[in-house]
Amino acid sequence: MGEEAKGIDFLSLGLQVVAGLALFLYAVTLMGDTLKELAGDRMRTFLARFTSNPFSGILTGTVATTLLDSSSVVIIMVLTMVNASLISSIESFGVIMGANIGTTISSQIIAFNIAEYSPILLVFGLLLSTIGENETRHKIGKVVFGAGLIFFGLWTMDKAVEPLHNYPPFFEWMKKLDSPIEGALIGGLLTLIIQSSSATVGIAIVLASQQLISLQAGIAIMLGAEIGTCSDTLLAVIGRSKEAVRAGLFHLLFNIASVIIGLLLIHQLVATVEWLSGDAPLGRKIANAHVLFNVLGVVLFAWFIPYFHRSLNALVR
């Protein structure tokens, strides 16, 4: 072990990573809550109006998640509407699938290396949110401030892990994540703890940008995050109607089925992403894999929505 590796202050490193993660999670929550306030009843009307068939539901879920920057917010909103009999469970399935596609937009944004410009967003957002008395402008300012805080949190984590380049034991541990099962378990557990699949994928992108994990390890972590994010949905259906329970179970089963296929074909997924991404940075390749995996999963299973519905009707009587 080199002298520089021996000099790593792991307490300071850990505190910086935790601080960066805390900023990221707070920013995601701030943006999600503020965007939900801005959209409010209009988003519920939008969801109810365009769910008449699975494919319009998929498009609706994609657009809603992109606008609200949170698949959990959209899915929980949909479950509430199902519980209130505003839409049926089968109408919610397409929206839930679309939410999986919409959440990949955040990973694409995270993969842009614009962290050094985060102070501009922070200052601009702070000014918008505090100057004047226009409530809508204040909320837009909060969203801009949250975006800046996301990139600043990622930058903090990125700088914190730089010393690990000179610490061989960390590389040895990271190599274990190349095992699809172990990588997925880590991704799922991390998402379960921090309650944000976007943060888990963001961490994978940060580690990849520092060349600390391989593309396969990053994809495995991302696949695990797809399972971990279902915890929000399952908690949201406790005590709800049977229709809402069916919708929540659909989210879990759809994600599990997609991830199993992803793990079985992970080598093919890695090769396809390498081919499509060319010389793109490793972090961008993980973001591209996130998009490719979720889009292919929706394309594959969208045709089987009626079968899912019949099976869940039989399961939840």
Summarize the structure.
Helix 2 (10-49) packs across helix 3 (54-68), helix 8 (135-160) packs across helix 11 (197-209) and helix 12 packs antiparallel against helix 14.
Verbal overview:
With 317 residues, this protein is mainly α. The chain has one domain. The chain has 17 helices and no strands. The chain is globular. This is Na+/Picotransporter. One of its GO terms (cellular component) is plasma membrane. It holds the Pfam family Na_Pi_cotrans. GO terms for molecular function: sodium:phosphate symporter activity.
Observed structural traits:
317 residues, mainly alpha, 0% strand, disordered N terminus, transmembrane
Taken from the alpha-carbon principal axes, the silhouette is globular
Question: Strand percentage, roughly?
Answer: under 5%
Helix content bin:
over 70%
Number of domain units: 1
Major sheet summary line: none
Arithmetic mean pLDDT: 83
Spans of 5+ residues with little confidence (pLDDT < 50)? 1-5
Strand/helix succession: HHHHHHHHHHHHHHHHH
> How would you classify the helix and strand content by structural class?
mainly alpha
Rounded radius of gyration (Å): 20 Å
Q: What's the number of extended β-strand segments?
A: 0
Distance between the termini: 61 Å
**Alpha plus pi helix count:** 17
Membrane topology: Multi-pass membrane protein
Keywords: Cell membrane, Membrane, Transmembrane, Transmembrane helix
Main location: membrane
Transmembrane segments: 13-35, 47-68, 74-97, 109-128, 184-207, 249-271, 291-308
